[in-house]
Amino acid sequence: MINEEFPLEQDQEEELFEHYKFIVDKGQEMVRIDKYLLDRMPNTSRSKIQSAAKNGNIVVNGGKVKQNYKAKPSDEISIVLPYPVRELELIAENIPLDIVYEDDNLIVVNKPANMVVHPGYGNYRGTLVNALIYHIDQLPIASSIAKMRPGLVHRIDKHTTGTLVIAKNDDALANLAKQFYDRSTDRKYIALVWGDVTEDGTINVNVGRSLKNRKVMTVFQDESEGKHAITHYKVLQRFGYVTLIECKLETGRTHQIRIHMKSIGHPLFNDMEYGGNSILKGTTSASYNKFIENCFALIPGQALHAKSLGFTHPQTKKWMEFEVDLPLGFQTVINKWNTYTEAR
């Protein structure tokens, strides 16, 4: 019996894990922690709990413990696990993948624009997961677990391009999920935003679902609302009416960069959900309108690219970092702004 059990809701675009916390009842007899958790988490297998313990994802009273630790009265136990598989038939599809790196434990891919990461309402085919299932199925080392659930620990929006890491086994999945939860990964994005960003800065404002429209996010000045979110940004190039910036994430909330930049008056260029797909800065001339229209046509949505991703390899424990170039459409937009600025 327990006094408290509260899965901490994860409403994040980047991080696909869940955090549980238990406080052991004062009348509880001492019992192995893997058995204790298994009895209280009926939808979780023993192997998942053991993988969590192996990767330091089980913490008791502030310290990491192994699976044979004996839980005792009043212990405060927390465990981080990847999200469970949704009840959804996953179909393997022969969709080309831009693989940046791959080994027996993980794959790093460069996701193109206009691709949803995983199947969901309205997007059951053509996703990155559909492509991964096919790819993993062709590998001689493919396990049944990996086939059924390509190991997502983070994701990026449909129109955002760039780096994603996917785990290929339970140990790698648990280890990478813990790294994202601990914020020990390094993620950098390139974004084109409206307006002249005058200086580098940090945005430390909570974000959460809009109370008026649950499909989009908003910022909350009240710290009791939304979720803690931190974005660091620095200017790479100024074009007067728009600015090219680099963003470094400390947290991975849904649409974090997009809503954070909008909150300081700099929505992402061509961001349809947050008002960046209309002319916010510039002139009223017909030629300028046509110039912006041509730029919008080159990218399917917000001008946002996951440039680099760094993490500790779950098996070798070595730091790895991967960087991918801007997609052609995004780079062409930047070239056009260079030309426009020089001519102006």
CATH class of the largest domain: Alpha Beta
Number of helix segments? 8
Strand content range: 25-35%
Distance between the termini: 72 Å
Secondary structure category: alpha+beta
H/E order of the elements?
EEEHHEEEEEEHHEEHEEEEEEHHEEH
Model regions low in confidence, pLDDT < 50 over at least 5 residues: 1-14, 140-146
Would you give the CATH topology of the largest domain? Pseudouridine synthase
Indicate the mean pLDDT: 86
Secondary-structure blueprint:
Blueprint: E1 2-5, E2 17-24, E3 31-32, H1 33-40, H2 46-54, E4 58-60, E5 63-64, E6 70-71, E7 76-82, E8 99-102, E9 106-111, H3 128-137, H4 144-148, E10 151-152, E11 161-167, H5 170-182, E12 186-194, E13 201-204, E14 206-209, E15 217-220, E16 230-238, E17 242-249, H6 256-263, H7 286-298, E18 304-312, E19 319-323, H8 328-343
Parallel strand pairs: 11-18
Antiparallel strand pairs: 1-2, 2-7, 3-6, 4-5, 4-7, 8-9, 9-11, 10-11, 12-17, 12-18, 13-16, 14-15, 16-17, 18-19
Helix pairs in contact: 1-2, 2-5
